[in-house]
Amino acid sequence: MSQSIISPAIISPATQIDPNYNFAYLNEQTKKMIRRALLKAIAIPGYQVPFAGREMPMPYGWGTGGVQITASILTPDDVLKVIDQGADDTTNAVSIRKFFQRTAGIATTLNTSTATVIQTRHRIPEQKLQQGQILVYQVPIPEPLRFLEPRETETRKMHAFEDYGLMHVKLYEDISQHGHIATTYAYPVMVEDRYVMDPSPIPKFDNPKMNNNPALQLFGAGREKRIYAIPPYTKVVSLDFEDHPFEIQAWDQPCEICGAGDSFLDEVIMDDQGTRMFVCSDSDYCQSRSEVQS
Amino acid sequence: MNSLPATGFPNPSEDAAHSFRSLLTAMSHPASIQPLTTNLPSVAKLNPAASLIALTLVDHESTVWLDDDLDDETVKQFFKFNCSAPLTKQPNQAMLAFFSHCPSPQDLSGFNKGNATYPDASTTLIIQVKSLNHGNAVTLTGPGIQTEQALKVDGLNKNFWPWFKTNQTIFPLGNDVILAAPDCLTALPRTTKIAEAN
Amino acid sequence: MFVAVKGGEKAINNAHKLLAETRRGDTSIPEISIEQIEQQLSLSVDRVMSEGALYDRLLAATAIKQARGDLIEAIFLVRASRTTLTSFGYSQPLNTSEMQILRRISATYKDLPGGQVLGPTFDYTHRLIDKNLEQTNNFPTAIKAPASNEATPHVLGLLSDEGLMEQPPTDTDAEPNDLTREPLSFPADRDTRLQSLARGDEGFLLALAYSTQRGYARTHPFAGEIRFGKVAVEFTPEELGFSLELGEIQITECEMVNQFTGSKNTPPQFTRGYGITFGQGERKAMSMALVDRALRAEELSEDLVAPAQDEEFVLSHCDNVQATGFVEHLKLPHYVDFQAELELVRKMRAEQNVNQNQTREAAE
Q1: Which residues of A touch B119 (CB under 8 A)?
Q2: Complex-level ipTM
Q3: How many whole angstroms separate alpha carbon A216 and alpha carbon B26?
Q4: Which domain does C29 fall in, by range?
């Protein structure tokens, strides 16, 4: 892992751990169970490993899977970044970051390249990740086939027999009906030519970043009790068709704050006349670009 | 060397966090060499890396199989006392299997390889080797390896790599291997492919 | 402007303070105590313990106070607290036939050994608001019968003796599954189903149970027996090898008797559905028993036609902590996904306009 030069200003230092809790909240036995599942997940890229997810002190659907993974991989030396919608200051990101400050006394940062562990909901940072970094995704519905087939007994068989016909039919129906694949987020990917995987509800804009990424990508679904992973340098391909290749979103204008033309933009409504402003969804990317310019 | 019952980690939570992180790195960067994060004594024929792995991963919900050389009272006490591990002599019931030395392909045939719906049900094999610094080199590729990765191992028998090649062909089924040298460890998940064996 | 979406941390801290203040309410009114909740809202406490899967009356009462009386929120608090506790092992199965009975009724026999004991029940009360409760210390004193030493055998046991009841499962020595340790997988065995239902939401099970009575998988049920009372909890420590009594808990148990016309391999007989809760939870125990029986459809070679018979559907959706979390997570920001959808809808509309214009031009 390359040693980055860390400016102290961008790290909130480690703090005292709440003595009522074990390091990172989970007891050691729970961590062992999750740790075994994580190693299996890495060994079978894209396959959903069942794990006995615990009830966490935040609601199911609010990142309990990601939180359990982060709690199981953190060491006291880590620097944690938490984002939701690409931003560090969205309410749920704030809440999760505070949880780990309190229970793990961990150093935190808003800076993508400084972080050793990044927990995310719905985005992959714009800044390229490095080898040694770990990206932990919060996943609501880990089963990419779930909306085509609600039964776990059936979808498990489909994965077993690599029977992904239903998924291709669905995507192709979109094309014949709308001229496009009408999936804009949680766009399914094929991992190492074997498992179709749900990338979590990231915009499809972020899908290409998953492919051959030097960082380790871990996915946790707490309510559905599944863990899966993409090891570093692993082939991840968004499903598409020869006559309708996969393409990502593009905007007509750059970010109105930092001028970036290569980032995912959020639309902010400015007034009741419908005036809109387009700005980077990745707050760290936007801010660091703005700082360089000023 | 240690007549008292071997103890666990001096700082259980912190030591386990560090050692797991090195296992996580090992599994996600196959054939990379990970130093041991806590100094542990050998426990009879169980070397420090293997005991580190045991303390990190084993608990009362993970069934452990020990080969004949490890199947002695000191090692069994270590597993029972520090890990509350259920021990089994049935290879196909083991979640983790510990080998004092490299097993033959026949020895490995009985371990659980997972099944089509639950490939994760397979046994993880922890094999002690003499060294990961010298010995015959192999070149490996696969997920987690950017281009290719050379690995030198002293202590594997000549049938290991052919067995590992076969293991690779039944993906997503198959066994994951962790090689435990006295001073370091490395992992060979079932996805790792052999580019060339010398 | 853009700053408007920032400042999450400050907003959260202030919201939490406001929540605490709102929970307390008007400070000129005395604060409710945990003991008052435990004693006077005891059925709330019972439900929170049951669905929270933890028998601790004062903890449940504290959770109810903290949750401002929102029982699902209180159940969630108890479950999260449960995660931090160390598990020492499993107790011996409860011997409910040795229950110290506080209430016991059977709808299938007019009289039976042990008798019918109405106990503290809303049944047969007229549901008229009792204005006397506006004053405090206003309640009648009940005349209590002396504790009976008469044995109260299970009603379904009496039917079994006659050979009319299905035989209990034979593999009773097998360790039951624990879904807090092994994630749910399908098909699920009956032990797993029962554990899942016991933790399940009362309202969801009530509605499913009701649906079976209205013809969505009719099971011809009779309330064979409902009993509520105290039972001893025993635990055998590994190192001792004999069991110790840890204490007493209150439970409600319901056994439904269901007519069964028989199948290829089984003669006509009665089958059972089973329900159990901590504390007094008759509605839940009865609902659970009806749903348990409906879920046995496949085992009894019955036609699978209704939601209450579908174990994947029932077990995947009966947990209210999971359900409330996922439904309420829609409150979290979804700017990014919504942006992605906006972009697609705009693009598709623009293309449609172009197509229509082309068609119109071609027509003109």
Answers
A1: 44, 47
A2: 0.96
A3: 12
A4: 9-82
